[in-house]
Amino acid sequence: MKHVKIRQYRLDNPIMRLAVFLLVLSTALYAETETDFSQEARPMPALVPQHAESDEIDQEIKRYFEHATSGMDTDQKRLDRIFMNNEAQTRPGEDEGSFTFHELGNKDETYRVKAKDTIYSISKKFGVKPQDIIKQNPDLETRALYIDEEIVIRSAKKPGPVPGTSVQPTYLVQKGDNLSLIARKYRTTPAVLMKINGLGPASALKTGMSLRLPGPPLLYRSMFAWPVQAPITSYFGRRYNPFLGGFPQFHKGLDLGAQLGTQFHAARDGIVIYSGRMEGYGNVIFVRHVGGLVTVYGHNKLNLVKQGDIVRQGQVIGQVGRTGSATGPHLHFEVRKQELALNPLVALGWKEVVPPGQVAEAR
Predict the structure, then answer these.
(1) Alpha carbons 280 and 323: distance in angstroms, whole number
(2) Which of 57, 181, 280, 294 could form a disulfide with 336 if both were Cys (CB 3.0 to 4.6 A apart)?
(3) Nearest CA-CA partner of 151 in 124, 170, 175, 123
(4) 10-residue block means of pLDDT along the chain (363 residues)?
């Protein structure tokens, strides 16, 4: 019988040693990249800049609202008087399911990480999944949270209204009624009646039952207009700052790449609360609107309005520039709820109800 010689692979074999080394290395690398949702936030590394350019805007807005709320808020009185306090008129109540300012927190927000925070604890606080936080902040896949850094949080959206309806008084079902008859009587459709009353296809109408009826269709307009028509060159969220050696920082607005000198417009009716010069954002304008909302316009070549001016949506307020820290001409545009930075792309999609008597101004 012929014996087969079996070659033994031992650790003193160079090829075997190399294979073991590569296996151990790949296991270690995999372990490092696996996200630990329970890991507490660490102090930010000393080499990473602690303050973003947007701190200038944060501090100025904070200073403004602290001063406004500490005494007579004359700007609020002017907003109420000039714009007739349309905030309450233009948005139906909670029962009608439409947008209210209390729902601003259900969009994209920024959150400043505190000591002992974990991805899991933050996800519970905002009612989102830990994986969603990672998706919004991709660099957290490969590193820990840093104390005092800002991350994007996108909360779940609440159910929206039934399009084109405004709920009005109820109707008591009479003997012999059905949805088709009631719908014809009130110039609507059975589908709309089912929607606003939560009825299913098999739901039966009973005599004396109360049904909610749709009122006249509501007209909607955009709450914010684009300040300038130009491509987006940088989005809201974490990005690498070329002026700080490529370190990641949080960008609290949109960069709109318009040509030098292009006129830009107020995104919404309001009052100018700041028009001046900052170190990072150059020439800057802040416009305050009803509901504590503020829009910011930065890197301007020229500011064409001054503090205290009343502006209307679409009014020219400045020229696009590259003042401050800018690699090229563009408009830096932000939307804030006082100090809270909101995603401008989300805000530009908001709609509001046109108040009675303003149909001609619907936009």
Answers:
(1) 8
(2) 294
(3) 123
(4) 53 68 63 65 58 75 87 84 58 36 51 87 86 82 80 60 52 89 86 86 84 77 94 86 64 94 96 94 95 95 95 96 91 93 91 66 46
Domain-embedded: residue 312: yes
Q: How many domains does the chain have?
A: 2
**Do residues 233 and 205 both lie within one domain?**
no
Please indicate, yes or no, whether residues 236 and 179 belong to a single structural domain of this protein: no
At 28 the pLDDT is: 55
Does residue 335 belong to any structural domain of this protein? yes
Q: Examine residue 71 and state whether it is found in any structural domain, yes or no.
A: no
Give the tokens for residue 218: 């509501």
* Buried-exposed string 198-232: b where 16+ CB fall within 10 A, e elsewhere: ebeeeeebeeeeebbbbeeebebebbbeebbebee
What was the pLDDT predicted at 51?
46
**In this structure, is residue 74 part of a structural domain?**
no
